[in-house]
Specification:
This protein has 195 residues and is an all-alpha fold. 67% of the residues lie in helices and 0% in strands. The N terminus is likely disordered.
């Protein structure tokens, strides 16, 4: 999704940290749609999502001198955005009365129509099976599948985004795939994911 950039992400990141506004704008333009899509998996409140993206980038600009290098810019932005969005959702009036959870974000995940790989009738049935299987998964399992197979983050990056250990991330991915395997053929799942 975000692999082709005129300049390497790390070079753009370095340039932004040195105060280059064009590089900062390039980061914003390049990652905005991905962050927006990721935020939509947690809430339908588009205003909260957009405000969280704005808050994130405002904080990045203000703190550019103290922010260190990022070996993976995408990872850094997704992790930071998730934190900002969680904080914003916790502080919204309609969510204040909700009981405290370990992780206030509920990850929603649906297969998009643009991912048709086989005949329409067959793929519709496969999607139905996948939706049914994913509906029975935990929020964390759905999120880890999204981050691994849709956002192409590494296990280490996912562990940092979710604030869990890499070992726990491997277990979470394994359990999520195992759950899907119980509900549908893993090969079918991987075909749907484009792997």
């Amino acid at each position: 999704m975000e692999k082709n950039v005129s300049m390497a992400d790390t070079d753009i990141w370095s340039s932004y940290r040195n105060g280059n506004e064009a590089s900062f704008r390039a980061l914003y333009d390049h990652y905005y749609a991905g962050l927006l899509g990721y935020g939509c998996r947690f809430t339908k409140d588009h205003q909260a999502i957009e405000e969280s993206i704005q808050d994130l980038f405002l904080k990045l600009w203000r703190n550019r001198a103290s922010i260190g290098p990022a070996p993976s810019v995408k990872f850094y932005l997704y992790k930071s955005f998730r934190r900002v969005l969680a904080r914003k959702l916790r502080n919204l009036p309609e969510t204040v009365a909700m009981p405290e959870q370990e992780d206030p974000l509920q990850f929603n995940f649906e297969i998009g129509q643009d991912e048709v790989l086989m005949q329409k009738e067959h793929i519709a049935e496969l999607k139905r099976q996948l939706q049914a299987a994913m509906a029975t998964m935990t929020d964390r399992q759905r999120e880890v599948i999204y981050l691994k197979y849709y956002e192409d983050l590494s296990y280490e990056e996912i562990s940092d985004v979710l604030s869990i250990t890499p070992k726990a991330t491997y277990k979470l991915v394994y359990r999520a795939l195992d759950h899907l395997r119980d509900h549908m053929a893993l090969l079918t799942f991987l075909l749907l994911m484009g792997r």
